[in-house]
Amino acid sequence: MSRTRAVPGGGLAVEVEPERLAGWFDRFAGRHGGITRTVAAAEHVRVEAADGTRAEVDVPFGPLADVGEWSGAALDGLVAHALVPRRVGLLLVRLGGHSVGIAVDGVVEVSTTDSRQVHGRNKAGGWSQQRFARRRDGQARVALRAAAADAVRVLAPRVDELAAVVLGGDRQALDVLRADRALAGVFAKAGERVLDVAEPRRAVLDEAARRARAVEVVVRRPV
Prior knowledge:
By secondary structure, the protein is of the alpha+beta class. The chain contains 6 helices and 12 strands. The strands form 2 sheets. The chain has a 7-stranded antiparallel sheet with strand order 1-2-12-5-4-3-6, covered by helices on one side. β8 (97-104) and β9 form a beta hairpin. The mean pLDDT is 90.
């Protein structure tokens, strides 16, 4: 089943597995009166339908080699690009845990997962709340140091082998790791996309590895 989410400015983003991408665009054409134009750049593809609806793709693992502008549908280059097997790094982080791995063509080959207790917020107020907040902050720092250490150990030595690093989890937690100079090379290969994932564990990492292959298509209807 395809995952969907609303996007800013109106529209819907759909995650499409590479093997289903050609069929997805065939169905898109059927629903919107056919495809009238395809514009493919190295990092972005735009498909325009007869009723004014657009389907846009930020090319995953770019750049795209087959670029140009065509009347009608011209998506063979994008589909072929999406189907290329790739080795990717995975870094999923939440305050309560993390999962780090390397996957090839959607299958995890190396991984580590850890969980740490980080208490929720205390609403009691006063001195008790301040003491609780300090304790929580300390737990969060310990959890994030553990996540950074595992990312350095698993991803950093092999970063040159990776087509990309796919992130997931909590953006604030990831930003803390992004500031770690030991992970500069890892984050240099990470895109802006952050997968929405549950508390990281091995099953979540396996799902993220499959989702990392997916092409996210943003569908925007005419205003």
